[in-house]
Amino acid sequence: MVLYLHGHDYHFELQNVCRLFLPQERLTVAQSADQPTDGAALYARLSRDDTHTVLSCRLQLSDYDESREATVPNTHADYHNECELVLCELLYALLSDAFSTEQEWGIVTGVRPVKLLRRLIAEDGEEAALSRFRERLHISERKLSLCRTTLQAENQILALSRPESFSLYVSVPFCPSRCDYCSFVSQTVTRAVKLIPTYVDRLCEEIAYTGKLAHELGLRLETVYFGGGTPTTLTTEQLWQLTAAVESAFDLSRVREYTVEAGRPDTVTKEKLDVLKKAGVSRISINPQTLSDDVLAAIGRHHTVEQFYTAFDLARQCGHTNINTDLIAGLPSDTYESFCRTIDGILELSPESVTVHTLSMKRAANLTLQKRADYRFGDEAVRMVRYTAERLPSAAYQPYYLYRQSRTVGNQENVGWAKPGYEGLYNVYIMDETHTILGCGAGAVSKLKRAGTEYLERIFNYKFPYEYNDGLAEMLARKRAVRDFYERFPI
Q1: Which CATH superfamily is domain 156-482 in?
Q2: Pair type for strands 28-31 and 2-6
Q3: CATH tag, 2-101
Q4: Span 457-491, pLDDT tens digits
Q5: Does the global pTM surpass 0.85?
Q6: Each residue's pLDDT tens digit, 175-205
Q7: Are 173 and 443 in contact (CB under 8 A)?
Q8: What are the residue ranges of helices labelled H in 358-424?
């Protein structure tokens, strides 16, 4: 499809609205004063006279050819944002009509709808914010209710953060194998085994340097998160080396949460679980994604359901009392009935939290590259997500964080559900961008937050382990920007 623009350059959000209905469609943008006469196309026009701006959209799709129009006063207090919003509304109306369907999230395409709701409430009050969600952003009552409930849980967590607070992220970008839906910059062990010992040594050096900076600046560590990849891909000795480096470099006495992803059940052993327990890790994540062996095989995830049950039981035996499980709605070959059995099976284990993702068709994932047909329609995924929203609250789980990704099957969301008191704090802090996150390791991004504002600065580490291993000096040089930041914006 070609997106023709005239009189403006609001292409970014218009493209995002198109992808809500055409997630795999190739979209190109062109500036043109002439309306197209054939082929799939969208024509978005802005024409301004002395007092008003006329905004119009025309959509051509096979035998569909319709137009919509609206006006905006030139004196509007937020003129440019209003024009962009109106064009998105016009396009949304056309696409909804053409496909005879509406999106539950309306025209909201951003990652953080809960944060948007919080900002609108702060600016205009709750009633006006909710009205805007319903009437201008076209969000369904179902998703608005989810947003409001999540907002209440998030607000309690955000209140724990202080101006001097920060969180630590440690990246371990290695996995036993790469799942078909994954697009992370991670390496399989078979390809990267020679890199890992040096990587762990370099990572410990960066952790030590980062801890020194945090101590000198008087920062307070709130949460620690080991992610990846799969951190438990490392050997028992390497895990101990990393956790010991964190303990040596940082004051952990006031840490509220220490999470390590043990995401792949086939990497979990008693020895590794014991190391994590002794290191003070308070939360782990063991992720089956589904309780169907057939679905696991269909997504190239090289473990079995039985291995998940074994890993989960072993974690309990080792004393881990805060376990999260990740699931994915919309996986290939999965059905609504099979997904419901997965949810019910997980609840029988009574984990402290359950994170339900909706499959996202990332460009770099094998799933997308292979153009698998099972992802073109999202009705099943919508039903799956609705089941979680009904079933989990009935089992005493409540949503505590929420985010969205582009190209999700059925245009759904990712939600963290937790029993009271077991919410994943780091998840909320990173999603809300509440306070500084200091990242260590390949692919990590440090986000420096000026307290009391929305201002952020970012420091990017090298993405790939081989770059990281050879570039530690550069990484540490970049990290000096942390000190510079807090000198400019003292706590």
Answers
A1: tm_1862 like domain (3.80.30.20)
A2: parallel
A3: 3.30.160
A4: 999 999 999 999 999 999 999 999 999 999 999 99
A5: yes
A6: 887 665 565 555 556 667 899 999 999 999 9
A7: yes
A8: 366-369, 379-394
